[in-house]
Design brief:
Elements (H helix, E strand, L loop, with lengths): L2 H12 L2 H20 L2 H4 L3 H6 L5 H4 L7 H22 L1 H26 L16 H14 L6 E4 L3 E4 L3 H11 L4 H15 L10 H7 L6 H5 L22 E4 L2 E4 L4 H11 L16
Helix pairs in contact: 2-6, 6-13, 7-8, 7-10, 8-10, 9-10
């Protein structure tokens, strides 16, 4: 193997465990799909989930890859954003967050499809498909994270500013412009807002639960694998907004919001889950 090949292999193996396996599965599915049509078994759609009862699609859309361009985008986002989050917050936590975000989004899509079907029957047709679950999960988590910057604003290409509270709505428009499933994008943003307001707290695993899951016999191999980030070595969960507004709670205090798109993206990357781990029922400002 060439020196460049060794470098690429080492860089890939140095990527955190969950991110590494999601990236690998992305390309495996992308390569196998033209031959075996595996996307027909993985993609989520209201028709298959509701009419045919294929509930596994609520989860398997995490591996859905509709094409080469999507595989490149998903790999880039996973490598640059997912790996940083996993290193800071733990492998099992980020996996649980991805799965929760994807399942909740797909459930939301089905609910929206039922509501709008009388006006747009096509949403219940076999041809109405959701997109890659990984991208939906990132939209959920970015939406959830952006709600920690209460009172801050973000500059959009220097043209105008808007409160970070509404930044996910701009992402919703952006996704729609590039052909994303509108119901799925709306469901992702809605799930992110609901998560930020604590409505998903009953199903979000606590640090104690995650630590206990690491002790399971079935998890022993993964916990010992290269690149696994344990709960003990990682930081707390998603940020909670301070009661005073305009800042994000962190382990060392508070941080002011940033005022540009690049800074916001950098802060989402570096501090998306900064903020004290909350006990159940502890709302904004509680560390």
């Amino acid at each position: 193997m060439s020196a460049n090949g060794d470098v690429l292999r080492e860089r890939f193996l140095a990527t955190p465990l969950v991110t590494r396996h999601l990236m690998a599965s992305t390309w495996i599915v992308c390569l196998l799909n033209p031959i075996f049509g595996v996307d027909d078994l993985l993609v989520a759609s209201p028709y298959d989930i509701i009419r045919k009862g294929q509930l596994w699609r609520l989860v398997t859309s995490i591996a859905y890859v509709p094409g080469l361009i999507n595989a490149l985008i998903m790999s880039f986002v996973l490598y640059r954003l997912g790996s940083a989050w996993e290193q800071e917050r733990g492998s099992i936590r980020i996996l649980c967050y991805f799965l929760l975000a994807i399942v909740a989004t797909n459930v939301g899509v089905c609910v929206l499809a039922i509501l709008v079907a009388p006006l747009a029957p096509s949403v219940m047709s076999p041809a109405f498909l959701c997109g890659p679950g990984i991208l939906s999960a990132f939209l959920v988590l970015i939406t959830r994270s952006s709600q920690g910057y209460a009172g801050a604003s973000v500059s959009i290409l220097g043209l105008f500013t808007m409160p970070t509270l509404y930044f996910p709505l701009l992402l919703l428009v952006f996704f729609a412009m590039f052909g994303a499933n509108p119901l799925e994008s709306a469901a992702s943003v809605g799930v992110g807002y609901a998560w930020a307001r604590g409505y998903l707290d009953p199903v979000v695993p606590s640090d104690e639960t995650l630590a206990a899951m690491e002790q399971w016999h079935l998890a022993a191999g993964a916990v010992r694998a290269r690149g696994y980030v344990s709960v003990a070595a990682a930081g707390p969960t998603l940020p909670s907004t301070s009661a005073g507004g305009g800042a994000v709670n962190s382990r060392d205090g508070t941080q002011p919001g940033r005022d540009s798109v690049n800074d916001l993206i950098a802060q989402l990357r570096d501090h998306a889950f900064a903020g004290g781990a909350r006990s159940r029922g502890a709302r904004d400002g509680g560390l």
